[in-house]
Structure formats: structure tokens, C-alpha cells
Amino acid sequence: MLFHPEPQAPSEDSMSIVQEFWASAPKALPLKLESLLAVWLLNCFEHSEEPVGFSTFFLPAFISHDCRPNCMWHYEGDSFILRARRDISVGEEITVSYLAEESLLESITSRRSQLEATKHFICNCSSCSSSLDPVRGFKCLGCQEGEIFFEFDDRIRPSTEGACRQCGFLATSSQAEELVAQEAKVEEYIQQWDRKEGSAAAYLTEATTERARWNGPCTSVIDPLARMYLLHVSYSL
Ligand SMILES: [Zn+2]
Ligand SMILES: [Zn+2]
């Protein structure tokens, strides 16, 4: 069978489905149904939004995930079409993304937690296994132009590999911690904006007022982000 966790006991839902359709079913059937549902859930592809629909294809279900996949897929009618998104060497494994395209731009931590929650595995693709997260750069505190990167495991660690390529600036541990705290603040802003959708014009003003008070190294990203956000909101409203 395709990838799935081995269920230990049938859920209440599986038991009620079996009860509803086959009251005198063999005892093992709810567990079998649970197992089949797990296979389906972990190997299906999104098909439609309204109504929400999913589809399963046998061979595509064997394609592994990679956060920098060499292929992408789409539908033509109900057919599953696989296309290369870069040159693929002979013998190289075909990979697609199990995450939405925009999620591939998120940090390793974020991608891993999404995949663990929805697909039950820890991603160990080459992007996720690299010690520095290339999508989690911070503005260089030295030249203010380049980017610096940190290693993240159980804590944040500045490393020479992540030093600014323009001026060679290497942050201290406390500077790294400060930048990550600022990053959390930016993330909090974005979540607040999401919650306040509907009064879009207030976002930029609020962000600017807060920025004057806060004055941290990440503040320069708040205004452009707020503008991008306003643009996004006005397109989608
Ligand atoms: Zn990955
Ligand atoms: Zn620099």
C-alpha cells in the first residue's frame, strides 16, 4: 500500500460509516476503512475548490516531495499532467511539491511543520537539511545592504558561512537573537493585519506609528510589507 501511518484503532467516524452502510460487517472492517482512508488522505491531490474535491492517481502517488522540486503538476480536464520545471538528469528522482507554491518561500521550520501536520513526515530534502536557511535572510547590520544568515537548530547560531557576502559582517549571538525577535514581531504584524482585514487603510498608518516607537533593525521591512499587503487586499476585495 502507499505511504500511510498504520492506524491502531478505528476512529469513531470510520465506525459510524461502517455502521451506517453495513451494520453486520465483519469486526475488522472499520480498521480496514481507517487504513484505506489514511492511504487516500496522504496520497491524494487537490482537485477542486468548489465543491472541495480530491483525486488519487496511482503512479503520481509515488512521487516524493522536495522543497525545490524538479517537476510540477496540473490538470487538463481530469488528467494529471506532470511537467519539468528545470533540466532533469538521467537517473535523477522526479519530485513535486506537496506544499502550495507560495509556501516554498517560507522558512525551513514553517515548511517542515506544515508537512508534518498534513503529510506526517519530516522533510529532509536538500533545502531543509542545509544548515543555513536561504529564505530566512536578515538585513546586514554592518553595511545595511547585504544579507546575513543564521543556523537554526535548538537555538540560533551565527556562523561564518552565513556572514554578509558584501562586507563580511558576522553577527554576535545577542545580535542574532535580537534579529530573530524582530522577525517574530514582523510575523505578528502580518497576523494582526490578517485578523483586521476589512479596514485595510488603517494598516499602513498603524504600522508607521508603531515603527517610530519600536525602531528595530527589521522596521525597514514593515512599510514595504504593509504596502504589499494593501495591494494584495485591494486585489482580493
Ligand atoms: Zn524540504
Ligand atoms: Zn554587510
Overall number of strands: 10
**Largest sheet: spatial strand order:** 1-2
Order of helices and strands: HHEEEEEEHHEEEEHHH
What is the CATH class of the largest domain? Mainly Beta
Helices, by number, come to: 7
Shape: globular
Uncertain segments: none
Structural class: alpha+beta
Largest sheet: 2 strands, antiparallel
Bound molecules: zinc ion
Oligomer: single chain
Any idea what the CATH superfamily of the largest domain is called?
A: SET domain
The third-level CATH topology of the largest domain is: Beta-clip-like
Round the Cα radius of gyration to an integer and report it: 23 Å
List key phrases describing it.
SET_dom; SET_dom_sf; Beta-clip-like; two-stranded parallel sheet; SET domain-containing protein; 237 residues; 14% strand; single chain; alpha+beta; 3 domains
Provide structural commentary:
Strand 9 (150-152) and strand 10 (156-158) form a beta hairpin. Helix content is 39%, strand content 14%. It folds into three domains: 1-43, no CATH class; 61-129, SET domain (Beta-clip-like, Beta Complex); 182-237, no CATH class. The chain is globular, with a radius of gyration of 23 Å. The chain is an alpha+beta fold. The mean pLDDT is 84. The protein has helices spanning 12-21, 29-43, 108-119, 126-129, 173-195, 201-214, 222-236, and strands at 45-48, 53-55, 64-65, 71-76, 79-84, 95-96, 138-139, 147-148, 150-152, 156-158. Strands 1-2 form a two-stranded antiparallel ribbon. A two-stranded parallel ribbon has the order 3-6. It is built from seven helices and ten strands.
